[in-house]
Design a protein that fits this description.
It comes from Haploplasma axanthum. GO terms for molecular function: acyltransferase activity, transferring groups other than amino-acyl groups. The radius of gyration is 15 Å and the shape is globular. α1 packs antiparallel against α2. It has one domain: Gcn5-related N-acetyltransferase (GNAT) (Aminopeptidase, 3-Layer(aba) Sandwich). The longest helix is centred in the last third of the chain and has 15 residues, at 101-115. 29% of the residues lie in helices and 28% in strands. It has helices at 34-44, 47-57, 101-115, 128-135, and strands at 2-8, 25-28, 64-69, 72-79, 86-92, 120-127, 141-144. The protein contains four helices and seven strands; from the N terminus they run ββααβββαβαβ.
């Protein structure tokens, strides 16, 4: 079963974690780095996610944040990729997991969405195992995603 997770951006949330390393920095993607991000996603995740990332990066102000270590992308998070108001996709290279990179990327995106005027964010089509990750850091309301934006996908 999959769920869309509704996040109230006006709820006073703050992900109280810091990066566990000073060798990683988080920054908003600059469009000249877009090819590097797409390559990172294709190498570490899926073609579907790479397509979603392209939708977020080919904007005047890309709606993606990246984690960088030694001038290499090691993680990313986007919003407004598949649909307006949606958070994701997001991912961190396996070698860099456990350093709170995903949590900080989530915080950056949710803050940017709030600053862009959104009252709510949707984390779309999340499996039950992943809900426990998000619920550790943010207050959310799960809603069945049986009839979600993702039902239009032709390659599931």
């Amino acid at each position: 079963m999959y769920y869309d997770l509704i996040v109230n951006l006006y709820h006073e949330y703050k992900i109280n974690v810091d990066l566990k390393t000073d060798k990683v920095s988080i920054k908003r993607l600059l469009s000249p780095n877009s090819d590097a991000l797409v390559e990172f996603v294709l190498k570490n995740f899926t073609k579907g996610w790479a397509a979603e990332v392209k939708a977020a990066i080919y904007k005047n102000n890309p709606t993606c944040f990246i984690a960088v270590s030694d001038n290499e992308i090691v993680g990313f998070a986007c919003y407004d990729a598949t649909a307006k108001g949606y958070f994701g996709p997001t991912g961190v290279n396996e070698k860099f997991r456990g350093l709170n990179i995903g949590q900080v990327l989530l915080q950056k995106c949710l803050t940017a969405m709030k600053n862009d005027g959104y009252g709510y964010a949707i984390i779309g089509s999340v499996g039950e195992k992943v809900i426990s990750f998000y619920s550790k850091y943010i207050e959310l309301t799960p809603v069945s995603s049986v009839n979600s934006v993702y039902t239009r996908l032709i390659n599931k």
